[in-house]
Amino acid sequence: MEIIRVPKIMLDTSKTFLLHGKTIGFVPTMGALHDGHLSLVRRAREENSITVVSIFVNPAQFGPNEDFNIYPRDLEGDTEKLIKEKVDILFLPDASSIYPEGYLTYVNVENLSEKLCGAFRHGHFRGVTTIVAKLFNIVKPTRAYFGQKDFQQSVIISKMTYDLNMDIDIVVCPTVRDKDGLAMSSRNSYLDNSQRQAATIIYKCLKETSESIKSGIIEIKNVKNFMLDFLRKEPLISEIDYAGIYDISSLEELSAEKENMLLAIALRIGNTRLIDNMLINIKEERKY
Ligand code: AMP
């Protein structure tokens, strides 16, 4: 595996691959890699001749009171994992090469970036779309891989690529979970044992709600309260940012049934903010 730190070298390397007819699969990450990240890497490897993974903890997507400084970093462990996965290139830029002094340009997908997590993390998605647009320009991927775990992020990035005529396929891969259902996340390492146990309520809530909708036990207009009541049973939850059922494209809250719907939750256990979601397809899955 080659490690490239300089954006211009990454760009020239990608141009050479493309000139030789190669396809480039790209997995952007913030590191502290777990099996969720590696599932994207494996998919990228299967579908492309070259696999590029980036690790960059992007300061522009963290708010002033968020966890940028303590975000888990494990470059040595990450490098080993990526070598094992036979990744071709690890792109590891410095913050100063991505946002040099005098940097002024930001990409923002309006409206969608203010919904759900955007309402609680102001400027977060502007930071995400800016870094992803820059990484796309530097890595020049044929396909880029994102996790359903961050469903809103995948919707916003798909919209950005469409609106800006970027010729890149956005591939969204299923959420990888621990055995007890908790979605893998670099931030799970912040949880102590009792908090880790408490966090299992998120997936339980998604599953129970999804099954209740499919079997007709609850109506769409009652889903939000059903989820809030379910989550409030867990005393270690310190705050619920949102829980409910949403349109999969507009991310608007739903009050009536649609064929495809998104259940989504964001909450805090102690100071740790956790998110998860589940898609429901009524036609495919209705049990009665
Ligand atoms: P991050 O390092 O948290 O920015 O995540 C990098 C990519 O990995 C994003 O596209 C995430 O959606 C994806 N990802 C994170 N956790 C998971 C998971 N448990 N399952 C699948 N994809 C994930």
Helicity, in percent?
Answer: 25-40%
Major β-sheet strand ordering: 1-4-3-2-5-6
**Roughly what is the average pLDDT, rounded to an integer?**
97
Q: Can you count the helices?
A: 11
Cofactors and ligands: adenosine monophosphate
* Content of β-strand: 15-25%
Q: Could you say which overall geometry the principal axes of the C-alpha atoms support?
A: globular
In terms of per-residue confidence, which ranges show pLDDT below 50 for 5 or more consecutive residues? none
CA radius of gyration: 19 Å
Could you explain how this protein is built, in words?
With 288 residues, this protein is of the alpha/beta class. It is 37% helix and 20% strand. It contains eleven helices and nine strands. The protein has helices spanning 7-19, 35-47, 75-84, 95-98, 117-120, 124-139, 151-163, 193-198, 200-214, 223-231, 282-285; strands spanning 2-4, 24-29, 50-55, 89-91, 143-147, 169-173, 237-247, 260-269, 272-281. The strands form two sheets. A six-stranded parallel β-sheet has the order 1-4-3-2-5-6, with helices on both faces. The protein has a three-stranded antiparallel β-sheet with strand order 7-8-9. Strand 3, helix 3 and strand 4 (89-91) form a beta-alpha-beta unit. Helix 9 packs antiparallel against helix 10. The chain is globular. The termini are far apart. The mean pLDDT is 97. Bound molecules: adenosine monophosphate. Adenosine monophosphate binds at residues 29-30, 36-37, 39-40, 146-147, 149-150, 173, 175-176, 183-186.
